Amino acid sequence: MIHPREWMEVRSEGLYCKAGGFFIDPARPVDAAIVTHGHSDHARSGHAKVAATPDTLAIMACRYGEGFACQRVDLPYRQPMHWGEARVTLYPAGHILGAAQVLIEHGGARLVVSGDYKRTADPTARPFELVPCDVFVTEATFGLPVFCHPDPQREVEKLLNSLAIFSQSCHAVGCYALGKTQRLIAELRRAGYDRPIYLHGALMKLTELYEARGVALGPYEPVTPGNRKSLAGEIVLCPPSALADRWSRSLPDVIPAAASGWMQIRARAKQQRVELPLIISDHCDWPELIDTIQEAGAEEIWVTHGREEALVHYCRKLGLRARALSLLGYEDEEAE
């Protein structure tokens, strides 16, 4: 077996496969890129060639325009593609619509790059699939033992209970445009909420894309100058930044809420002036990270995107080889 240490390396642009001549989620434009999902800290425009799932390519076109890459390669889940001397297969990551793990096979070895992933059920994303491998490259956004995410339906019930008690208040929920907005709408529908949900204009385009890609979300409408004053007792979704500006203050008797895994940290909620924190994450919590690492069967773990040191330390205690990749250019702004 040729160990992946021989044919994978970290460059200034990001994680590079020498056997295939491509980067995975590069931070700058490159000749060839495999993109795990559509969040902007993973999916950039300007690459000469991009391979990704059809949903991720559609998201990138929606965000960056049809000319986001010179060449686009549709790579559906579980359909291997030979790229140079490597074989590449994408598997569902459970993170958002189109999110994928990247299995790279070369020299008798299997390496999996998780991208961002979660194990919790999500009505808007394909469920995570475990992929056995020799080396597992895992994210660590919530890579500390303090993070243990509750059932998202419990958090949705908190929102609906507040809406019932404060029935004349508009509940403005800060949530990111890609993934979190659509998931929160779907979770509200799963909880039986069938009223129209109102969206800040910045959330409309990607929500419409989700529906066009087959994700049913029920009735939603944009917030407009004409209906803004009549939204007492309604749920309004908006970018997190809108909670602190004049846009949200113009809503009737607004209760500011936010849906994020970071809402488990009370200081964050207080800092953002959130009165109703909803702990709904699109990433694994600590127990899910540990379970996945153990179930993947890899003898070596590479850690990136987040709390690298704690997870590396824990993996070594399990008797696994582990190292932090310390990639630059990746943030937790969109995908929490």
Automatic annotation (TrEMBL):
Gene3D superfamilies named in the record: Ribonuclease Z/Hydroxyacylglutathione hydrolase-like
Top-level enzyme category: hydrolase
GO molecular function: exonuclease activity; ligase activity; RNA endonuclease activity
Keyword Hydrolase included in the entry's annotation: yes
Matching InterPro entries: MBL, RibonucZ/Hydroxyglut_hydro, Xnuc_lig_assoc
EC numbers on record: 3.1.-.-
Record keywords: Exonuclease, Hydrolase, Ligase, Nuclease
Top-level taxon: Bacteria
PANTHER family, A to Z: BLL1145 PROTEIN, CLEAVAGE AND POLYADENYLATION SPECIFICITY FACTOR FAMILY MEMBER
Protein name (database record): Ligase-associated DNA damage response exonuclease
